[in-house]
Amino acid sequence: MEQDYRVEKILYTQEFIENKIKEVAQWINETYKDSKDLALVGLLKGSILFLAQLIKSVKVDHTIDFIVASSYYGASKSTGTIKIVTDLAHDIKGKDVLIIEDIVDSGITIVKVIEYLKTKQPTSIRVASLLNKSAKRKVEFTPDKIGIEVPDLFLIGYGLDYQEKFRNLPYIGILKKEFIKD
Ligand code: PRP
Fold it and tell me: How much is the pTM?
């Protein structure tokens, strides 16, 4: 696989990631086999590649919607405040909601998003996260389904960005130090 010159190391190859995504899809097919109304809710923008790859293997009928939640509005992430920048387009009342995330880090974003979505009265609400960085957790939370448990490193690729770039890399890796500007 061709490696971007700014990438120090590839941690997870496309093949490895996509095999893990197939496992997540199998979990969805099993968990929601009796569901009448499954809504996948992608948390933008990190989840785009994961969601696109995931639904190729999801056999249960479902709808797709998106939500944009930002934790960077005028404060650092550690304040634990998030803002719903773009809300869902469709009603989720009475539906089984599965939130699709790229990574759960401190857990603050996902816990707040769940809290918010619960006010819309879905029948159930679960989370599938491609990556889980439990070492960084600040609030208690475990996704219902995890693709890969990752070490405490700054990761880019497969949806994950550094300053909004590198989401397009088909693998997950770490940046070379000289390309990290502070
Ligand atoms: C990233 C990621 C998660 C969140 C995880 O989103 O996609 O949503 O941070 O961090 P946390 O568990 O510490 O809250 P970000 O706000 O960077 O937006 P993005 O999806 O557009 O990259």
Answer: 0.95
